[in-house]
Amino acid sequence: MKIFWISLVVLILSLSLATAESLKPEPLQLTIKSDKQAYKVGEKIKLEITIKNNSDKETIIFWNSKEPEVYSEEIGVYNVAMYVMSQNEPVYIKPKGNAAKILSVTFDKRFRPLCGEVRLVFLYSNIAMPIDFITKPDQEIFAGTLIFNTIIIEVTEQLIAENEAIELAKKACIGRLEVPPDAPVVVELKDKVYIVTFKTQWPKGTLGGDYYARVSVDAASGEVLEILGSD
User: Fold this and answer.
1) Which of 7, 11, 155, 180 gets the highest tally of CB atoms within 10 A of its CB?
2) 189-207 pLDDT, tens per residue?
3) Are the folds of 25-156 and 162-228 the same?
4) Residue 1: what pLDDT?
5) Is the pLDDT of residue 87 over 70?
6) pLDDT value at residue 21
7) Under CATH, to which class is 25-156 assigned?
8) Buried b (16+ CB within 10 A) or exposed e, 142-162
9) Which of these, 199, 193, 225, lies nearest to 212 by C-alpha position?
10) Would you place residue 166 in the very low, low, confident or very high pLDDT band (cuts 50, 70, 90)?
């Protein structure tokens, strides 16, 4: 019976220690916030990164000031990844203290099909312990990966101007279709596509096509989608 009670006490103590360990905060905690809620494609997104040091030692992280890699493995979710090495700027975080850094991210035209509500996941990774960096006894270098769950922003399309669409259409016709410099131009916007038509002007009684060229230009990316000549 005595052995049973001893075993029970040991089990309770083990469970208590395990629970306390699981509730213990991570040595470093990372949070991010954006400077505003909505952005246009191509606009810089400024992120404020805060790293909290929960340990009893001064923690050193390395910071890469270059624009981070952005990639997506899931629709509507973008990973903002920073990979660092010991050659990057060291940041010293006091015990129980915080460090804040500003990071810029650009959502370029690659992200146009997924405009709307977007989730950002920031990933900080320092997986290689530096061998040439000297630390004091009360300091430690963080090596590993920090991931902040999610922040939600809105990314909106920024359509190119009508005159820009005309210039893109003119360039697209060079070497393919002959368009007189003084040809009248008609521009329509349909479903985020500019239809640029260079109309013909024939003398009265002369038969000919209605236009020299009709060019479809993506209004968001500026990509020329189609070039047609009149029969």
Assistant:
1) 155
2) 998 899 999 999 888 777 7
3) no
4) 53
5) yes
6) 42
7) mainly beta
8) beeebebeebebebebebbee
9) 199
10) very high
What would the CATH number be for the domain defined by 162-228? 3.10.450
Q: Helix/strand/coil (H, E, C) string of the chain?
A: CHHHHHHHHHHHHHHHHHHHHHHCCCCEEEEEEECCCEEECCCEEEEEEEEEECCCCEEEEEECCCCCEEEEEECCEEEEEEECCCCCEEEEECCCCEEEEEEEEECCHHHHHHCEEEEEEEEEEECCCCCCCCCCCCEEECCEEEEEEEEEEEEECCCCCHHHHHHHHHHHHCCCCCCCCCCCEEEEEECCEEEEEEECCCCCCCCCCCEEEEEEEECCCCCEEEEECCC
